Amino acid sequence: GDSVTQMEGPVTLSEEAFLTINCTYTATGYPSLFWYVQYPGEGLQLLLKATKADDKGSNKGFEATYRKETTSFHLEKGSVQVSDSAVYFCALSGQAGTALIFGKGTTLSVSS
Amino acid sequence: GEEVAQTPKHLVRGEGQKAKLYCAPIKGHSYVFWYQQVLKNEFKFLISFQNENVFDETGMPKERFSAKCLPNSPCSLEIQATKLEDSAVYFCASSQYETQYFGPGTRLLVL
Question: How far apart are CA A84 and CA A88, in angstroms?
Answer without folding.
Answer: 10
